[in-house]
Amino acid sequence: MKVFIIENEPIAVQQLESQLRMIIPDIEIVGKAGSVEECVTWFSDQSNHTDIVFMDVELSDGTCFDILDETEVNASIIITTVYDRYAIKAFEINSVDYLLKPIKPEALKRALSKSLRNYAGDDAEKIISALAYTCADQDKIYKKRLLIRNNAQIYPIRYSDISCFISENKSTVLISKDGKRYLMEKSMNDIEAILDSYEFFRISRSCILSRSAIADHYRIKGIQYSVILTTKQDFEIKVSLSRSSDFENWLNRK
To answer: What CATH number does the domain located at 2-132 have?
Structure first.
């Protein structure tokens, strides 16, 4: 992920760069500028590219909004400032986020996460993994979001919003709790390997369920289970006979 920093205070530049590298160690800082003139020159050069622009509002020769009046910025914009009076203006230019200084780590992570909606780089999943960790949860192994690619769009889906994964027409499909379907690039085996085994359980070769999405379950044919989800479903969900005992133990885990 490439980042361009617009800031006329050297200390503020160092602090932001340090925070960014703490979150994403291999993030690429492609440029830094502290004036409107410098920025217009950089963005007017078609060979220059960045994914995210951090813009301080008040610069040495104007404001960051002057840059947008003079040249096109094809990147996600995150406004950084000590003032809250520019919030409406930031909204008007469709900035991804508005961060008040001093910038808090969690606010910065939130802004970076929002920026991923417009990011399609090969390292996107690695970045999602980095953003999944919080300062109070550094020892957590499992990610909090799953990255879904759909053409040029990227959708970070929270695991808490997932109902199930199913195998359908030789493809893997994620079904969210609001009923939306997302075609996955990964196989069922690959997905199972990255899931928290407490929250998710593979009930058959073709289905992985989320614990929080189970509304009810009941026995059929003696020891086999049928499951009803909180999500409206147009297909029957059955636990395979070979997994029934493990499914029962999983449900009873505290």
So the answer is: 3.40.50.2300
